[in-house]
Amino acid sequence: MGNHFFLTGKPRVGKTTVLKKIISKIGVENFSGFYTEEIVENSNRTGFKIVSLNGEESVIADVNSKSDIRVGRYGVNVSEFERIAIQSIQNNAKKIIVIDEIGPMQIASQTFLSIINQFMQDSQTVLGTIYYDSHPKIDEIKTNSKMKIYELTRGNYNDVLSKVINELRQTSLFQPK
């Protein structure tokens, strides 16, 4: 049985929302890591920010960014992403690691990609989201035998939420020693 639980689905289907609900239901004290949120201005998505579970946040992508690293129309601030993401997921062996998301913006960081590849070999329990479309580096991560991927749709939202909560509660973190 895998110990890496990842949600995937089309953009704006609710992956981060489900992730946050799972954290809330199980208890934030059992998690470490980060999630991303859209930045919306006048009903238009203009960027993304990263938020660590300890409350630190920063803009990591913006349409007006001058960054040379581009994903679609967004300039990506890799150093800000690394500053928060890497600190929030390292050295937390007794917690479930939250990674939202493994996507093109995030893997622009070679350091992050290397850490993800290490996690995929470890027994550390991971809860995250992963890019829906095909991408060579991300597709390789998706083939890991420890990874359970749940495709989220509007129709199965509550079922996936319940299933992942139940499966996380069956992990060794919640079993008597």
TrEMBL record:
Residues 1-153 form the AAA+ ATPase domain. Gene3D superfamilies: P-loop containing nucleotide triphosphate hydrolases (3.40.50.300). Keywords: ATP-binding, Hydrolase, Nucleotide-binding. SMART domains: AAA. Pfam families: NTPase_1 (PF03266). InterPro entries: AAA+_ATPase, Nuc-triphosphatase_THEP1, P-loop_NTPase. PANTHER family: CANCER-RELATED NUCLEOSIDE-TRIPHOSPHATASE. NCBIfam families: PRK13695.1. This is NTPase. It comes from Bacillus yunxiaonensis.
